[in-house]
Design brief:
By secondary structure, the chain is mainly α. The protein has a domain of about 35 residues. Helix content is about 55%, strand content about 0%. The protein is elongated, with a radius of gyration of 22 Å. The termini are far apart.
Length: about 70
Amino acid sequence: MLSAMRIAIDVPDALIASLDRVSALERPSRAAVIRDAITEDLKVESLSAAEEAFGLWKKSQVDGVQYPKSLRDE
């Protein structure tokens, strides 16, 4: 099992109420909900460069195949 560290954070009352509602419906504890939220947030924040670049050409007016060919022709 991975080691764990306890941390202290200040959480506004409104977020605590939301946290309690979510934990009552989905998870056994507040701590589990917070761990899951941190894990999901870090997945999004730490996307690889390839994942970040995926789909960049989707809205482009330039053909993604033709563009590098035109660069080579210069």
